[in-house]
Amino acid sequence: MSKEDSRLLDAIYERGYVYNFHFHLIWVTKYRKPIFTTPTLVSDMKKILTRIAQLNEVTVETMAIMPDHVHLLISFKPKYAPTNIVKAFKGASARMFFEKHPETKQQLWGGHLWSNSYYMSTLGNMSKEIVEKYIKNQPTKNLRKNSDRHSSPD
Question: What global pTM score does this model have?
């Protein structure tokens, strides 16, 4: 097994498909207002996001709650659209957070916890360059295997 092929061992195996990707997701509070300013507020948001992840079959690998934004490193099944995962996190977390801490709603103009925007990027164990090299070498590998099978011993 080649080094590139062995990276599939880190993949998640599901019925009918195998995947290995991760998303870095960041979103900010409305107007970058510092809301998560105490250990209790941070802890409560972490619990909320963990619960939302469980309900949506999302694996949270790393999480950081900053005063005015959230960082998540997550993975989820390919059957889910990334935009729907983001909506689930942002929508449900705002609702649940305001239920637990209604006093924070007054700190936000318009009563919205999160800005409309977010940043999301994909990550994997292999860099773009490694994948490009792996794909480009596929015809060469297959040609070598076929020629070895069809060559006659002298």
Answer: 0.79
